[in-house]
């Protein structure tokens, strides 16, 4: 009896089965700090800092052992906006599925931000260096937990100029089978310790997964901002909007606007690290359920 009780205590201490911590929290914060440093000059699409961010993302994907999606990591495209032509690039990595290699789960975040204005650098720590650093945590997790479905780790460009990278990707993938998009944008800063999830009203199975979700952290996961409440509707607020328009199921994870949103004060020192680590763990846990059970 004592052994049985001891086993039960140990099991409960681990949290939900399969969701034990599986990424390096120190490296998560280091990647976020690096990408949101002044060296990257706000990562504005087409500018020097954006090119440096591309190189950093590719270098890190290689170090984490993930392979390119297609023949290369960097998928370039051009577009016109605001009376200007832009040269942009999505950075795409993949981890092959063990059971459904031709069905894709797309985990996404955008690496571009607003650049430099009137001498002030808009570093975009939360928006969205936080999502890119989380992509690296996913790469680390998947190296230890091979997925059933092929996972595309998508670092999109030009989100701040109309979700251009996401739309380009979705168009190129229109003849493939994308199971779901999990999009991360602004997941590292919440004074209320709250992470919102958007998208459940559009897919019954996703709603069931979130409704029954066993949160392995102390941070709150809240359904909202999806057009069914009196809050701002985020259904098309970030790159997941391109997937939604193509009728691809999505979940968007983010936090509410804060004082640093689209301001120079969106810096690394203003994030809430404990919340950020919990947010990444929540995302990994939701992903694991979808990958295991499908939609």
UniProtKB/TrEMBL annotation:
Q: State the signal peptide span.
A: none
Which residues are in the Peptidase M28 domain? 90-285
Record Gene3D superfamilies: Zn peptidases
Pfam families, alphabetically? Peptidase_M28
Domain of life, per lineage: Bacteria
Q: Give the matching SUPFAM superfamilies.
A: Zn-dependent exopeptidases (SSF53187)
Record-linked InterPro entries: M28_fam (IPR045175), Peptidase_M28 (IPR007484)
PANTHER family, per database record: METALLOPEPTIDASE M28 FAMILY MEMBER (PTHR12147), PEPTIDASE M28 DOMAIN-CONTAINING PROTEIN (PTHR12147:SF26)
Protein name (Swiss-Prot/TrEMBL): M20/M25/M40 family metallo-hydrolase
């Amino acid at each position: 009896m004592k052994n049985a009780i001891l086993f039960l205590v140990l099991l409960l201490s681990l949290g939900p089965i399969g969701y034990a911590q599986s990424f390096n929290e120190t490296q998560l914060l280091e990647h976020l700090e690096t990408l949101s440093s002044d060296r990257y000059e706000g990562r504005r699409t087409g500018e020097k800092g954006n090119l440096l961010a591309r190189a950093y993302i590719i270098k890190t994907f290689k170090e984490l052992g993930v392979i390119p999606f297609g023949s290369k990591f960097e998928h370039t495209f051009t577009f016109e906006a605001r009376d200007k032509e832009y040269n942009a690039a999505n950075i795409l990595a993949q981890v092959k599925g063990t059971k459904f290699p031709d069905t894709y789960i797309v985990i996404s975040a955008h690496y571009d931000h607003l650049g430099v204005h009137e001498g002030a650098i808009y570093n975009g720590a939360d928006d969205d260096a936080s999502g890119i650093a989380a992509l690296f945590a996913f790469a680390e997790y998947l190296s230890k937990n091979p997925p059933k479905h092929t996972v595309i780790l998508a670092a999109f460009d030009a989100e701040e100029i109309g979700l251009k990278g996401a739309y380009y990707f979705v168009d190129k993938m229109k003849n493939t089978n994308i199971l779901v998009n999990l999009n991360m944008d602004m997941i590292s800063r919440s004074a209320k310790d709250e992470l919102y999830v958007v998208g459940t009203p559009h897919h019954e199975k996703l709603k069931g997964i979130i409704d029954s979700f066993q949160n392995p952290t102390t941070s709150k996961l809240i359904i909202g901002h999806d057009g069914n409440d009196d809050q701002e509707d985020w259904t098309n607020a970030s790159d997941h909007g391109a997937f939604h328009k193509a009728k691809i199921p999505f979940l968007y994870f983010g936090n509410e606007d804060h004082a640093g949103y689209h301001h120079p004060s969106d810096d690394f020192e203003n994030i809430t690290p404990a919340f950020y680590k919990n947010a990444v763990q929540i995302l990994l846990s939701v992903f694991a359920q979808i990958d295991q059970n499908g939609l």
